[in-house]
Amino acid sequence: MMKKVTMFVWNHFTNDARVMRECLTLSQNGYDVNLIGIANKKIPEAIPYEEINQNFKVHRVPMYPKTLEYYFKRKKRVTAITAGATALMSPLLYKYSKSSLVLMLSTLIATGVILKNNSLRQNTVKLIRSLRMILKGIQLKADIYHSNDLNTLAQGVICTILHDSQLVYDSHEVQTDRTGYNPDTVKLVEKNLIKFAAETIVENATRAKKHEELYGYLPKTLHNYSKFYEIDKVSDVDLYEMLDIDRSKKILLYQGGVQFGRGLNVLINSMECIENGVLVIIGDGKLKADLMEETSKRDLTDKVKFLPKVPLEDLPSYTKQAYIGYQVLQNTSYNHYSASSNKLFEYIMAEVPVVSCDFPEIKRVVEEENIGLIVDTEKPESIAAATQKIVDNPELRNELSMNCRSAKFKYNWENEKEELLNIYKELSN
């Protein structure tokens, strides 16, 4: 009989390569997988229900309560009706049931406070969303629950307790060192919830050691390697024509989230010193508008081009067009410092040499496999010098690319997935 697995993710599950690989692996190796994510009416792919294959289904809970959506669409009408109803009901309730009047007015005041206070409203919405995930998780009774990151761990814990199941905690980040989170609060919550996990997974050895320092035990590691493919069999996308780039120029690629700490501002600045290359940034994020404005101000629009996020299945067609790939994370947190970076392995799989930061996990792969050059990601001149060295030396670029071709046989999901299957086999036994 197939073991049932229910996973939780705190995203729309439209571009989560790691979780997709895990779910596909389990569903193709004797497990019935249900994944619970978040629906979004603004994102066509984030539909309430989706069947990936016979043993892998996706269930998405609403991003917002329907009442809240209705309120913001028809705010004036709702306010008028509420005011009218209050005016009519208050005298009656005052006469016949003062306690009901107090309850009604208290409810209206509380609702008004929640709607007016942005932070309180967001937290209320998140709580409702979490409760919906829990209810769906209870409905999808599983032998093993699998929580991806801390923001779905409570959901997994509650479902695990109610169904006397087992729990896997799959932490993709160093939760105590994420931007915008209070580290002391996070540590307290994580420390108490992980007690319910039968197994904990982190991304690499550096993060495993950090986890051991925090909580006293060494978790399993599961690297975020790209799936294996032969680059020659991947279809081509003509970025030169798409972005009106001179074909004599080399395409210098960054693909990933356009977020703080990714070194993108430094990368753009470095383009002032780089000849015969055009930087293409593929992805979306909070910084994108600012970076596009900065590019325009610096008169670099001919040397820096932007594209929106590309579906995972299409991304290799874009990646293979690059002469160089960038992974220039900055040391803004331990979470960045300890990263392995799935983008690094996507470049390797596409046989694209890298210019990268000197963080331990990334530097180890780059130097051991000789697939690129290490730079100081705080200095535009360092990035520019390494880039120009590869652009001006076709023989060096070819050597680094051939080394990527060798490395891809080592750093791929087809090898790494055995670790996941072993973890699940131990739990199943």
CATH superfamily placement of the largest domain? Glycogen Phosphorylase B
Oligomer classification: single chain
Q: Domains counted in the coordinates: how many? A: 2
Average pLDDT number: 91
Main sheet: strand order: 3-4-2-1-5-6-7-8
Helical amount: 40-55%
Strand portion, in percent?
Answer: 15-25%
Termini separation comes to 13 Å
Set out the fold topology.
Layout lengths: L2 E6 L8 H11 L3 E8 L10 E5 L2 E6 L4 H8 L1 H22 L1 H19 L1 H22 L4 E5 L4 H11 L2 E5 L12 H11 L5 E4 L2 H11 L4 E2 L17 H5 L6 E6 L8 H7 L6 E6 L5 H10 L6 E4 L7 H5 L4 E4 L6 H4 L4 H8 L4 E3 L3 H10 L2 E3 L5 H12 L2 H14 L5 H16 L1
Parallel strand pairs: 1-2, 1-5, 2-4, 5-6, 6-7, 7-8, 9-10, 9-12, 10-11, 12-13, 13-14
Antiparallel strand pairs: 3-4
Write up what this structure looks like.
- The protein is an alpha/beta fold and 429 residues long.
- The protein has 2 domains: 3-64 and 121-225 and 418-428, Rossmann fold, CATH 3.40.50; 231-411, Glycogen Phosphorylase B (Rossmann fold), CATH 3.40.50.
- It has 18 helices and 14 strands.
- An 8-stranded mixed β-sheet has the order 3-4-2-1-5-6-7-8, with helices on both faces. The protein has a 6-stranded parallel β-sheet with strand order 11-10-9-12-13-14, with helices on both faces.
- The chain is globular, with a radius of gyration of 25 Å.
- The model has no long low-confidence stretch (mean pLDDT 91).
